[in-house]
Design a protein that fits this description.
mainly alpha
Length: 115
């Protein structure tokens, strides 16, 4: 079945159809991520900075930046925002209803780990 826009009837070139197709393709590429990249990917849905990622995962900002760059490349997305949207969609699709929550902020994670 070919997806068509309900409003204009367009099949090709419609932004919403292209967006849905690219999201589905990116979700399928999540399997390409390494274990450490998956940890970063899970945190991305909350929109953290590289500094926040580095604090949460006890890595340097440079390493966090490298992981994010690798995730963008493997998912074939153009921006960190797109990767955040893919992460949110991934969690919505793969986590039992009501059990997924956004990542704990890094400053709160430090308190949890130190106790």
């Amino acid at each position: 079945m070919i997806d068509r826009c309900r409003t204009c009837g367009s099949v090709t070139g419609h932004p919403e159809i292209r967006l849905a197709a690219s999201l589905i393709a990116a979700l399928q590429r999540v399997a390409l991520l390494s274990n450490r990249e998956m940890e970063v990917f899970h945190l991305l849905s909350g929109g953290p900075s590289n500094r926040e990622l580095s604090k949460a995962l006890y890595i340097t900002e440079r390493t966090a930046k490298a992981h994010v760059a690798s995730i963008l490349q493997k998912l074939s997305v153009d921006s960190r925002l797109q990767a955040c949207l893919v992460a949110g969609a991934f969690h919505t699709q793969n986590c039992p209803k009501g059990q997924w929550q956004t990542a704990t902020p890094p400053d709160e994670m430090a308190n949890v780990r130190s106790s």
